[in-house]
Each structure stands twice: as structure tokens, then as C-alpha cells.
Amino acid sequence: MEVVTRASGQRPNVIDDPFLWSLSRRHVDNDPHQVVLMGASRMAIAYSPTAFHEVAPRTRVVQLAISDHLPLAVLGDLAADPTFRGIAVVDLIESEMAMPLLTTQSKEYVDRFHALWRAPGALANRYLASYAQSELAQLAFGGRRLIMFLIGKRSLPGPGLVALDRDRTSHPDYDLAPPGTLRIKADKRLDNLAPAPPPSEWLAKLDTELEPMVRAIEARGGHVVVIRLPISGKLSTAIDERYPRAQYWDAFAARTHAIVINAKDIPAMATLECPDEMHLGAPGQAAFSRDLATALRERKLID
């Protein structure tokens, strides 16, 4: 069954869920030099530990980004954690900063982490399951579907474009995408892009929802870095048109206590292209991770 599965192009893929995320969250401690990454799928896919540690080999990094979940519930959890005084790196773009669910998405993950003491058996089960998933490609879509394929009832799905390992590191391979599918996804994302709120309303939302978290972490000696990762193509053009930089991003940077980084201002990052306009591929992942480590070092946040 495994031979058949791998012959179809599938790779082992650890399923991400609140339990697996909680295993990573447990590694966040009181180290002032520790970097904690937060965001949605963009940050989840963009980070390569191997490439980051080529530049900053002594820096410990914890990946807490969650695909399809905005990150402020995670940042709020760190802000409320009296032991955290590290470096919180939060990926956001202007359109996400306007979303109503900015502070509530990811809450189920945070809640699960804090309830782990009530579910030690489930945590152990998830730990063992993650090992099996990291070894067996057939678990990427479930044994039932594979059995249905073997008896001729269903076809196998195409290979996943992103595979996850046990430490929640993503391994993208957009060359596996059937022709035209990336363009279809990009166009759908563009169609769903909401109109921008007025700059004053957008900034006031961030003052209310983001800034108290930033100040709480800074009060303990920690740092918050808000970074706008590379996006490209029509999506980048549309966001630039709807959110003029001077009125939105630069205005936010001028009033927040967070350290603000825009990929457009870092020459090496600015040239990176996203195959689906939103997410970096494997070459861009490595380049971005090295550039991120360099940017943090230049700001004297890491050694």
C-alpha cells in the first residue's frame, strides 16, 4: 500500500491540529533570545530551520504559525504569559489586519494547550500518530480512501503541494501542482479580497487589538516584530492599490511600539516570487529564512 501511495507522488505529511501545535507551544520558555514565529500559512510555509540556522546557529526558533488561522490569539497568549520575554515575529498583511476574526482565530489551539493537563492520553496518542504520519505517505489521505482505490471504487487524490514534518516545518513543492491550478487559486483569492476600510478605522482596530499585546510583551523586556512577508503578482498589486502604503502600512509603523519590517524594504526579500502569489516555494523559503535571520540580527534582536 505504501509503494502504491508513493508511486502516485504522495509524501508523508503530519496532520497539523491543536494537539500537535501544543507540543510546539510547550517549547516556548523564558529565553530572551528565543524567536517565536506566528502567522497563517504564509509564515508556516516560509520558514526553513536549516536556512535560518545557517545565519543564526545559536538562536532557538519555535514555529507557531497555523495555516488558515490569523495569529493574534497566539500573540495574546504570549502577552499573557509572564514567563515569555523573547522575540515574537508576527506575519500580517494589510488585508488580514482588517479582518473581524483577527484576534479570535487560533483560540482553539491556545485553549487546547492550556487544557493539556486534562488530556495526557490524547496528547500521547497524538505524539505517536505524528510519528506514524511522518513515515507513511498513505496516512496523508487516510487508509479508507486507499482501500477504495485498490478495489477500484475511487481514484487517488493528487499529491499534496505542502508536506509537514513532526516539528511543524513545511516542505512546499509547487511543481507538483497540475497545470493551471495555481492560477485558479490565485484568482479565487483575489476575488475574495474585501474592500479596504478607511485608514482611521483600520489603524484604530490595530490600536485596540494589537498594541496592548505589544506593550505587554515589551514591558517584560521582550520584543514584537510585525513583518509583511513577500507576496507577488496580481494579489500584491491589488493590495497595494486598496491599501496605499503611506496611509496604511507606514502610518501603522509610525505609531506602533512593535518593530516593523516590510519585505519590500529588504532588497533580497523584495525579489522573491510566490508561485501562487501568496506562498513561497522551496527556493524562496530558504532565501527568506536566511534574510529574516539577517534582518533580526541587524536590529540587534539575535546574536
Description:
With 303 residues, the chain is an alpha/beta fold. Helices cover 46% and strands 9% of the residues. The strands form two sheets. Strands 2-1-3-6-7 form a five-stranded parallel beta sheet. Helix 2 (18-25) packs across helix 7 (107-114), helix 4 (49-55) runs parallel beside helix 16 (282-298) and helix 5 (72-79) runs parallel beside helix 12. The termini are far apart. The model has no long low-confidence stretch (mean pLDDT 93).
Tell me the fraction of residues in β-strands, as a range: 5-15%
Give, in order, the helices and strands.
HHEHHEHEHHHHEEHHHEHHEHH
Poorly predicted regions are none
Report the helical percentage. Answer: 40-55%
Compute the average pLDDT: 93
Short summary:
46% of the residues lie in helices and 9% in strands. By secondary structure, the protein is of the alpha/beta class.
Sequence-ordered SSE layout with sheet pairings:
Layout: H1 2-7, H2 18-25, E1 35-38, H3 41-46, H4 49-55, E2 61-63, H5 72-79, E3 87-91, H6 94-97, H7 107-114, H8 120-135, H9 143-150, E4 162-164, E5 170-172, H10 181-191, H11 199-209, H12 211-219, E6 223-228, H13 233-242, H14 249-255, E7 259-262, H15 267-270, H16 282-298
Parallel strand pairs: 1-2, 1-3, 3-6, 6-7
Antiparallel strand pairs: 4-5
